[in-house]
Specification:
It is built from 8 helices and 10 strands. It has helices at 13-24, 44-54, 62-68, 78-86, 89-97, 137-143, 211-220, 224-232; strands at 2-6, 30-33, 57-58, 102-104, 108-110, 151-153, 161-164, 170-173, 188-196, 199-207. A 5-stranded mixed beta sheet has the order 3-2-1-9-10.
Length: 241
């Protein structure tokens, strides 16, 4: 079994197109999308159209909830408001239909943050400026209690990482397709998980694309902080809005 894993597209169509082109040269039994699909200042509607057309198993992220109703956030994020204004009724209906979690058979469990909370960071604590501290083994394992699938996929932090729990379960974060932060890469990121004779393995993939064009689109839409983050991949989340 071979599964392509996408997360955190954030409306970045040039990045998504590069990932889809890379995927087109391969074969997969399933494609999964882990949320935060459209919240970004580039092309929210275009991202929605492409993901809807994939036939992927998709779940919602915290920004998907906020795009549907920006007032759910104490201080509505301007880019969530922008994204909602770009979407049509069919896009919003699709976004509203997405579940918080899902699975691929009995093998793979999907969540955005943790199984219980789409705003919680899991494999990496969220950034303090440009730094983050890795959680302990006990903290990571606690969030996986009750999940019996041998593979658990999460997103949200935009940091590509994979680990194994002591019982052998694999947890993987593919990183972000459309918004790179603090790690110094502008490339679009996704993952491939595959079951082979020795068990499940992960490939974390970075795909170069025209990040300069994407940055200029964000800036033209009034979001200069996004332009800086997309162009270089070093900015922290505090630069976004």
């Amino acid at each position: 079994m071979r599964v392509a894993v996408l997360s955190d597209v954030h409306g970045n169509v040039p990045a998504l197109d590069a990932v889809l082109e890379d995927m087109a040269r391969q074969s997969f039994d399933a494609v999964v999308c882990l949320g935060d699909h459209v919240s970004g200042p580039i092309d929210p509607a275009g991202a929605a159209e492409r993901i809807m057309a994939l036939g992927a198993i998709s779940i919602r992220g915290n920004h998907d909830r906020w795009v549907l109703d920006p007032s759910r956030r104490a201080e509505p994020w301007s880019v969530d408001v922008f994204a909602r204004e770009c979407l049509g009724a069919a896009h919003l209906d699709w976004l509203g239909s997405l579940p918080a979690t899902a699975s691929v058979g009995d093998a793979v469990f999907l969540c955005h943050g943790t199984p219980a909370d789409d705003e919680a960071a899991w494999l990496d604590n969220f950034y303090n400026g440009r730094t983050t501290v890795l959680p302990s083994e006990a903290e990571v394992a606690r969030e996986a209690v009750g999940i019996v699938h041998p593979v658990i996929l999460c997103g949200h932090t935009h940091i590509a990482r994979t680990l194994r729990l002591p019982d052998g379960r694999l947890i993987a974060n593919p990183g972000s397709v459309g918004m790179q932060l603090v790690r110094g890469t502008p490339d679009a990121h996704y993952a491939v998980i595959e079951k082979r004779r020795g068990g499940w393995q992960t490939m974390l993939i970075g795909v170069p694309y025209d990040a300069e064009a994407a940055a200029r689109m964000a800036e033209a839409n009034g979001f200069p902080g996004w332009g800086e983050a997309i162009r270089f991949g070093w900015a922290g989340p505090e630069t976004l809005g």
